[in-house]
């Protein structure tokens, strides 16, 4: 699992500095750092390849708002209402996956000092290459398959 955080305002691929870490807590200092990109390499739970393959057997796309103080409940409700939960909720990795997504949403809220974040979950890469959006920071998490490709200038 890889989490990538980046700041559009600092993006200059020719002179870009990158924070590489295995600790999600390290992104807390990202806002005040000169780094344009933070890459957090995280461990992959056993059985996750099969879990995500079953999840992605049919296309999934969920867009919602997740509140920091209710992140786990919001994500659980969203996945249930969108029919995603029914595909994998009986699997052992379902609850840890929900908790991981909630923890990431909470960490991003802490980073940006906000009460909620825009949440997108999908099985198809919408943006295969980096581009600019009108947001100060973006957190991308790839649980399986290819993530966003960062290209040199």
From TrEMBL:
InterPro entries: DUF1826. Pfam families: DUF1826 (PF08856). This is Uncharacterized protein. The lineage of its organism: Eukaryota, Discoba, Euglenozoa, Kinetoplastea, Metakinetoplastina.
């Amino acid at each position: 699992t890889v989490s990538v955080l980046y700041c559009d305002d600092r993006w200059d691929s020719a002179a870009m500095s990158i924070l590489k870490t295995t600790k999600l807590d390290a992104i807390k200092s990202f806002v005040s750092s000169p780094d344009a990109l933070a890459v957090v390499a995280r461990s992959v739970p056993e059985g996750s390849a099969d879990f995500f393959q079953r999840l992605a057997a049919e296309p999934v796309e969920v867009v919602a708002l997740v509140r920091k103080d209710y992140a786990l409940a919001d994500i659980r409700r969203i996945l249930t209402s969108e029919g995603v939960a029914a595909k994998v909720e009986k699997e052992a990795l379902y609850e840890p996956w929900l908790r991981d997504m909630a923890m990431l949403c909470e960490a991003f809220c802490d980073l940006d000092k906000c009460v909620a974040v825009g949440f997108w979950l999908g099985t198809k890469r919408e943006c295969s290459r980096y581009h600019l959006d009108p947001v100060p920071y973006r957190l991308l998490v790839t649980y399986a398959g290819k993530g966003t490709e960062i290209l040199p200038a």
